[in-house]
Amino acid sequence: MKHAYYYYTKEELLASPKLPIAVMEDNAAVFQAMAQEMAEEIKRKNALGERTVFICPVGPVGQYPYFVDIVNRERISLKNVWFLNMDEYLTDDKQWIDASEKLSFRGFMNRTVYSQIDPELVMPENQRVFPDPQNTGYLQELIEKLGGVDICFGGIGINGHVAFNEAQDELSPEEFRNLHTRVLKISRETRTANAIGDLNGAIDDMPVYCITIGMNEIYNARKIRLGCFRDWHRSVVRHAAYGDVSAHFPVTLLQEHPDVLLRITEFVAELP
């Protein structure tokens, strides 16, 4: 086989991965662990009188109901918390899609997270940030102003992308790691995978463009926490853990990060 690691058993996968892997019972366990880490970091920073800065995905999203529940139940103040969302779909003229649209990440966060948190606890609107195609440098400037990102949460795409940092084979790992927030065209494989998950396969209705936080902003987070749980994640995590560092499969760049953790389910760890 061209890529032997795609066919590693669970034992082979966990033998000597190039980035730490935690195997958890099921999807709920992965999402609960993500939510709990979010809450614990906020409580820790609140106790120190310091702000908390997260880079947050809309995919995976299963952690958010658990997070909302913990915040409301434990009365955790988010007033000094910043959520920097990874990305958003764009129209053909490269503007944000309307927040009312089914695919909008802004709409999702409003419906599922911010509106579900007690108004006495939720962060101000200016601390709920999305990358803006009209001002692509803003996120980088904001992160510097805030003193860096505490934790970047996310998943891994079918071609190894983190956020919408699509593979660019022509770039060296160093060049790819230096990419900042930008507008780009979404690859057909990403549009296909997302159409299956979000639009019942209606690929022609998937946006062609997006804006994404850069690999530079992600890599420079103090911690990176990724969650994988889908059937096709079986090969993705094996590539992430054993593939060469390259812009061809961007998540491999995170092998060199000092504090990264990949949480996966038993389903993903095992091969059929």
Key words describing this protein structure:
272 residues, alpha/beta, Rossmann fold, 3-stranded antiparallel sheet, 10 strands, 33% helix
CATH class annotation: Alpha Beta
Just name the CATH architecture: 3-Layer(aba) Sandwich
Number of strands: 10
CATH topology: Rossmann fold
Shape: globular
Order of strands, main sheet, comes to 1-10-9-6-2-3-5
C-alpha termini separation = 17 Å
What structural class do you assign from the helix and strand content? alpha/beta
What value does the Rg take, in angstroms? 18 Å
What quaternary form is this? Answer: single chain
Q: How would you characterize the largest beta sheet?
A: 7 strands, parallel
How many structural domains are formed by the residues?
A: 1
* H/E element sequence: HEHEHEEHEHEHEHEHEHEH
Percent in strands: 15-25%
Low-pLDDT ranges = none
Number of helical regions = 10
Mean pLDDT across the residues is 97
Helix proportion: 25-40%
Brief sketch in words of this structure:
It contains 10 helices and 10 strands. The protein has 272 residues and is α/β, with parallel strands linked by helices. The mean pLDDT is 97.
Summarize the structure in words.
This protein is of the alpha/beta class and 272 residues long. The chain contains 10 helices and 10 strands. The protein has a single domain, classed as Rossmann fold, CATH 3.40.50. Strands 1-10-9-6-2-3-5 form a 7-stranded parallel sheet, with helices on both faces. A 3-stranded antiparallel sheet has the order 4-8-7, with no helix packed on it. Helix 3 links the parallel strand 2 (52-56) and strand 3 (81-85). Helix 2 (27-47) crosses helix 3.
